[in-house]
Design brief:
Keywords: NAD, Oxidoreductase. It comes from Castilleja foliolosa. One of its GO terms (molecular function) is glutamate dehydrogenase [NAD(P)+] activity. The chain is about 35% helix and about 15% strand. It is built from 5 helices and 7 strands, in the order H-H-E-H-E-E-H-E-E-E-E-H. The protein has helices spanning about 1-10, 35-50, 70-80, 100-110, 180-194, and strands spanning about 60-65, 85-90, 90-95, 120-125, 135-140, 160, 175-180. Strand 1 (about 60-65), helix 3 and strand 2 (about 85-90) form a beta-alpha-beta unit. Helix 2 packs across helix 3 (about 70-80). The relative contact order is 0.14.
Length: about 190
Amino acid sequence: MAWMLDEYSKFHGYSPAVVTGKPIIWEGLLVETQLQEDVYFSQHKLALLNEHGKIIAGQRVVIQGFGNVGSWAAQLISEQGGIIVAVSDVTGAIKNRKGIDIQSLAKHVEENRGVKGFDGGDYLDPDSILLEDCDILIPAALGGVINRDNAKDIKAKYIIEAADHPTDPEADEGVVVLPASGYICELRRCYRET
């Protein structure tokens, strides 16, 4: 990213806001991945606690996407007593009404490069994960997955966005949506540097 900034600056002057993910010495943000995800979900847990009188403990959670953000969210939620009842990634999806053992799943994913074949849950059609019965839905994979076609069938009471624009504006069905805050860091960086 530093190279891209350097090349751009040769023609347009020093403009650090043109790229993100720069080293600290080039006005990048000091955020380690684990810390970033911890802060991200701590903010949302507080939002649930303060604004809606809810705590994570005992909440049934579905996570679409078990990459960096989704797996870290699952770990944090599990540590706080949340019950992860379904998880998906590009290889497949699993569900377990009693709760998925996140440490075992993380080990399986590391060894097998995906949730497919994990024996701690039942197979689930990945296309239906957003429609699973849960208290909290966390889309942590792709944008536009919650749209006007499927919004009315989503059973979650809360949606915590953890992907880039997973919820289309046309999908408003009165569910509480907590928008992705990781992008606020990027916005803050752009405003700081312009």
